[in-house]
Amino acid sequence: MKAKSTNLRGSQTGAAQTGAAKGKKKEKRMPYAERRAQILERATELFAEYGLTAQTRALAAECGISQRLLYRFFPTKEDLLREVYDTAILGPFKAVWFAELSDRSRPMHDRLNGFYNDYLDTVLGRQWLRLFLYSSLAEADMAPNYISSIITKLTETIVTETARERGIALSVEPEAVHEIGWTIHGALSHYGIRRHIYRASLITPQAQVVDMHVRAFLSGFDAMVAQFE
């Protein structure tokens, strides 16, 4: 995935100049919270489209404000990126999903189907995926932090709950638990990438694809655990 920053610099400069000129005529005062939300929304769009190398000058122009005013809200680009991570990467994840995956009144097949269909619809959209992939290419902290804070717990929950339903006493290392969980999470995350980044896998209904991967994960689960024991 190649960032568009090479061709963006010139357009950013022109956009910034044009935006600054317009800003002098059209800039209006907005409530602090409203302006801050506007900056975050535009920043997420900009970084998702052009990568993390996109300049704050272009962002200020997009918001119709001066770069100096932008820095009153976010003193550094790092501050802005941290906030984008919290709102755009972490924000869509629903804490209730952990409780639903741990609801033993429902079969694991149903729990996994429900979670991954909702996860694909809520989280793995085009903008989220582009932002996540660009942050990975830039070796920024967004992707590693998301994996350590969310996906690690998610894979542990999925594997632990599946083992319990199948009557398997897990005696494998945590790293092995995560790898087993990644077999389904990685497959369905890449399905999201194929749909929204590659523009492929658009014909078969999502629910059918999810169910296929859920069934494959559950049918091969015992063998995967045995391999690490």
TrEMBL record:
SUPFAM superfamilies: Homeodomain-like (SSF46689). Pfam families: TetR_N. Residues 10-21 have a biased composition (Low complexity). Residues 1-31 are annotated as: Disordered. The keyword DNA-binding applies. InterPro entries: Homeodomain-like_sf (IPR009057), HTH-type_TetR-like_transc_reg (IPR050109), HTH_TetR (IPR001647). Keywords: DNA-binding. One of its GO terms (molecular function) is DNA-binding transcription factor activity. Residues 55-74 bind DNA. It comes from the Bacteria. The keyword Metal-binding does not apply. Residues 33-92 form the HTH tetR-type domain. This is HTH tetR-type domain-containing protein. It comes from Ciceribacter selenitireducens ATCC BAA-1503.
